[in-house]
Amino acid sequence: MRLNTISGRFAALTIIFVVMAELLILLPALAGFRLDYLESRLERAQIASLALLATDESLASDLESELLQNAGVFNVVLRRDDVRQLVLSSTIPGPVTATYDLRDEDVPQTVDDALGTLLNRENEVVRVIGSPVNQAGQLIEITMPTAPLRTAMLDYGFRLLLVSAAFSILTGVLLNLAAQRLILVPIRRVIAHMKAYAEAPEDPRHIIRPNARLAELNDAETALEAMQKTVTSSLKQKERMAQLGEAVAKISHDLRNILTTAQIFADRLEESADPKVTRAAPKLLNSITRAVTLCETTLAFGKAEEPAPTLSRFNLAQLVAELVEAETLAADAAGQVEFLSDIPPSLMIRADRDQLYRVLSNLARNARQAIEGTGENGTVEIGAGETDEEWWIRVGDTGPGLPDKAREFLFKPFSGSARKGGTGLGLTIAADLIRGHGGRVDLVRSDEQGSEFMIHLPRAVGEGGEPL
């Protein structure tokens, strides 16, 4: 058993505390032993004096000395009928140094007298006064040496300490066994589970199952179980994302080739004599260009990073008009969702035009799909403005609002979707792209009256979108 272990320290502390408790009661115990010792000497002296009182004749000197020696005293004085009588006597080797009246001693005085007896190594003569047993007189008084008393007290204290030490060791061993069974075994079980889980954190079979009987340990196991489930889920999610990134990158390569061919044909549509085709060709060409750009940046997103934005100044109202036209075409034929734009026509901002289009497209599409999911009519409004420090863009809707789970994991992929079957990637992409501009996307409100997002773009940005 080592002291740097819980069991070793627990046993050592138990022994120390038990010994301290025994030491605290040692002086009162010695005081009680001293009082019993003195009372026994008074009783012996009273019995010795009765041998003389039983006869009317004087005892022989050798018999008197034997009685006093057996009683452990030098002389005996009885007071009976208000008469003080020296019953037995012998030569006193020295003066009387102290007098103890056992009839009126209190506990503190008894402890103090006991401590004084232990510390005084001199063999002195003391007078002890007490009441005779069985009402055999008014008082009895003896003189006696202190050396035998001190020797008896030391012997009693030594035996008491031995018993206390044995009791302390036994108590420590029993408590240590109990601690091993109730505390250390469950702790070792938790440690074993943690080691097994660390070797294969993606394996759900290694997740601990709380079964500790102690409430504190059960709470610890429950917290550990929740943490392990979260870590395992995150690892699986990251693994799926890595696989998804690899798969999408392969698809993006082939899709980019297909879209490049479509772009060539779209360029030729501009030469058509049909005015409708001529008007639609630039929009088709812009859509294909964005699709090609998106394919080229898919691999970067699969690596959990986006390319740095290419900043330029452009008219935000025109960008939003393109977005509204595209989303209106994507909405259902019943005209269930209405798009409104509240942007000053002359508002110019500095950002990556394609990335900002992706951000607004994701927010507007989420709002449209949320309204369509209710089966009722609704409105999506896009507004914007500027201050001395930033540009802001607001995207609000009259949809049902986001559920609690979606708000909790709002900008986490595969977790923040409010739509059944959604991936939650839209908001993640939006937040990453705006963060690359040095800005942020905030959820302003979400309740039964709808949701509102706010985009903040700083005016001063450095290379890579970092604020200056």
From TrEMBL:
It is an enzyme of class 2 (transferase). InterPro entries: HATPase_C_sf, HATPase_dom, His_kinase_dom, HisK_dim/P_dom, HisK_dim/P_sf, Sig_transdc_His_kin-like_C. PANTHER family: PEROXIDE STRESS-ACTIVATED HISTIDINE KINASE MAK3, SENSOR HISTIDINE KINASE. It catalyses: ATP + protein L-histidine = ADP + protein N-phospho-L-histidine. One of its GO terms (molecular function) is phosphorelay sensor kinase activity. SMART domains: HATPase_c, HisKA. This is histidine kinase. Its EC number is 2.7.13.3. Keywords: ATP-binding, Kinase, Membrane, Nucleotide-binding, Phosphoprotein, Transferase, Transmembrane, Transmembrane helix, Two-component regulatory system. The lineage of its organism: Bacteria, Pseudomonadati, Pseudomonadota, Alphaproteobacteria, Rhodobacterales. The chain crosses the membrane at residues 12-33, 156-179. Residues 250-461 form the Histidine kinase domain. It comes from the Bacteria.
